[in-house]
Amino acid sequence: MISMVFEARPSSFADQVYGRILDEILSGAFAPGSRLPGENDLSELFGVSRPVVRQALARLRVDGLVEARRGSGTYVLSRPSDNLTDVASLTDVSRFLRYQELRLSIEGEAAALAAERRTEKDLSDIARAHEHFAQQIGHGTFDAESDRAFHLAILDATGNEFFRGALEGNGVVLSDFMGISLSITRTGSTDRARKVVSEHTDIVEAIRKRDAVWARAAMELHIIHARRRLTDRTLDP
Q: Residue 227 has what pLDDT?
């Protein structure tokens, strides 16, 4: 491996170390089942402090890419899709997965509230956005904006404008991150694309039936699957 010292703001160091370790996992240098170098070695390799390395490793654990074994070290659990670097920088992958955590906490609740509060117009908007996205999937021409329209229609159905602001504030646009996930889906199997549509269908049906518990669970499962589709090449959920 080549040593690399990052020149960036301190707040981005952990993202860059995350990306560098992920790059080694993708290349096979750190294969599934192998033990990562210790914190001191990684700190020296990347020219950063141990707390930065520790933060990057913690994020990798949360994302299911590595696991810590007491008294033994940190081991690689899974290898992401081979074409991951074709659709996003490895630093952006770290940001994407953290953004998915935010979506999980916000959109699950939003789906539940949408099921309880939606009007017939809200339901029509959600269903129309879903149908448009499903048609695009069928033609192989889907894009992040159509996916964004579906999710924003659900946020709007809550009747609370702050849900949309929570996901798209501070210069962040939902479709920016959706593009990463959809690019993986686009290059994956047909079954994978159909699964995304099926997940959307479950969300729509739960909202249609005003089943808040089902709506929350369906949305959370959809977002969890989006994370898994990115981080583990052996999964095609």
A: 79
Are 56 and 90 part of one and the same domain? no
pTM score of the predicted model: 0.72
Domain that residue 154 falls in: 82-229
- What secondary structure does DSSP assign to the chain, as a single string? -------S-HHHHHHHHHHHHHHHHHHTSS-TTPBPPPHHHHHHHHT--HHHHHHHHHHHHHTTSEEEETTTEEEE-----TTHHHHS-HHHHHHHHHHHHHHHHHHHHHHHHHHHH--HHHHHHHHHHHHHHHHHHHHT---HHHHHHHHHHHHHTTT-THHHHHHS-TT--HHHHHHHHHHHHHTS-HHHHHHHHHHHHHHHHHHHTT-HHHHHHHHHHHHHHHHHHHH-TT---
Q: Among 28, 52, 74, which residue terminates a domain? A: 74
User: Bigger pLDDT: 144 or 200?
Assistant: 200
111 and 38 assigned to the same domain: no
Task: Check residues 9 and 124 and name the one with the higher pLDDT.
Answer: 124
Structurally, how many domains does the chain consist of? 2
